[in-house]
Amino acid sequence: MGFRTVIVSSHSKLEYALNYLVYKTVDEVKRIHIHEIHTLIIESTTVSITSALLAELIKQKVKVIFCDEKRNPSSELIPYYGDSISYQRINEQIKWKENIKHLVWQKIVQEKIKQQAFVLSKKMPDEAIILSNYAKEVELDDVTNREGHAAKFYFNRLYGENFSRGSSDKINTFLNYGYTLLLSQFNRYIVAKGYLTQLGIHHKNPFNPFNLSCDLMEPFRPFIDLKVIDLSEDNFKNKLISFLNHPVYIHGKKQTLIHAIQIYCSSIFLALNTGKIECIQFLESYE
Length: 287
Known about the structure:
By secondary structure, the chain is an alpha/beta fold. Helix content is about 45%, strand content about 20%. The protein has helices spanning about 50-60, 85-95, 100-120, 125-135, 145-160, 170-190, 210-215, 220-225, 235-240, 255-275, and strands at about 5-10, 10-15, 20-25, 30-35, 35-40, 45-50, 65, 75, 245-250, 255, 285.
């Protein structure tokens, strides 16, 4: 499994040679073994990349993210086929029972609110207790939308009463970038396991190709919320990218955030396929 996140931020050409990504500029040539790369971020629109390299990156399951002219993530490379048994996986996914999906979504929303309470406890312990009560009120499939009510309370306490998630301020810029990085990691693992990102358990937007990823990533959003509090605009993207390898605890063990996402997703798939909701593994702690 790769461990490097590679960012290409200036005018250059990327090629493939003998299992290496070859980075070329006017002044230098560098090589990175593809097996070492977990995620490749093309941050500049002045980068050219060969189809041979793209094909090899897909083959070796490297997540490739492309950025727009403002250097914000705008798209990513996803293979048509992931796991060698993707036909079986898609059949499983289509047959997931509605009542089990509702139970899983209830657990996901409860955990998201618990994680929000954990983040809020760093600044406002008393307010965090109020937020924790929202988690206890989540019903099957969250039909009363405790998630939405909790989010409004949480964001206004965490970032101030005037904060709006739809604004274009500094905090929202940080959040959007961090959430996009998270989403790409969920997309990567879901596709690698042979499932379809389009078919969610709760999100059902026909124009969203990542409904399932959006469902599964919800309990991980508060991790990003916490990390952006003390971020400055100076080099914030690299700092957010570095958090993908941040140590967290899940299932009683210390893991990187990337590996924790994989453990969590696998447990969700097990719960959806067997009905054993108790199998779900959530983040236990992080700093």
